[in-house]
Amino acid sequence: AISKASQRTMEKLRPNVECRLFYWGTPILETSPVEERSARDELGVGHDEVLLGSFGRLQRWKGQDVFVAAAAEVARARPKSRFVVVGGSVFGLEPEYFERLKHEAVALVLADRLSFTGFRSDVARLMAACDIVCHTSRVPEPFGLVIVEAMAVGRPVIATAGGGPSEIITSDSDGVLVPPDDPGTLASAMIALIDDPKRRRSLGLRGRELVRTQFSIDVMASTLIKHLDEQLIRVRSSRPTLPRDL
Predict the structure, then answer these.
(1) CA distances from 243 to 191, 233, 236, 240 (A)
(2) Strands, DSSP E only, in the chain?
(3) Quick check: pTM over 0.85?
(4) Does the pLDDT of residue 195 top 80, yes or no?
């Protein structure tokens, strides 16, 4: 299992099968100020503007429309804010959702402040270009890989409480948790971080350290190797001892 929530689900589905928890390993990536600046230039973000981003495949349960609705509130309150939605439809699921999001941005008079990039392979670069990364799933995530990826590049995260995100983040310590499907509360959390650069930096540093100590590839590998060693010892100790004369 990749989270305690998914572990509980697996145990309910297969009660007689042992299920062990291994958090997904995430690389700790370094990006340069030049890379970050080039990404911000590409998105039309000024030096004095704050960029907030949403990352992930585009599906309604992922809640990108919640992000767009909250962004509209923030844009009215903080003129120096800009927004980006990174991701596209995957496996042909809900292809119409992308167009719906763009129509909503126009209806909310947000089109000139919000960029849609579609599918990208340079996600770490775009995350590092953001000042704040938002996770807005409507239902509990099995894990929330986007969250740890953003933390790994040192960016503060606002995430929907429940499931994996509530295991990853201690709210107001290494990130911020908000209720699901609540654009108003999300907008308030966005504004609070926009107005507090020092807190943004503190959350980013703590989040990066959390990934290094609990969610890195090295931690996952060592945990898995320890588990395999334990299983090997158990198998060897359970072998029947054959009589000497055989």
Answers:
(1) 75, 22, 17, 10
(2) 50-55, 81-86, 114-118, 132-134, 157-160, 176-178
(3) yes
(4) yes
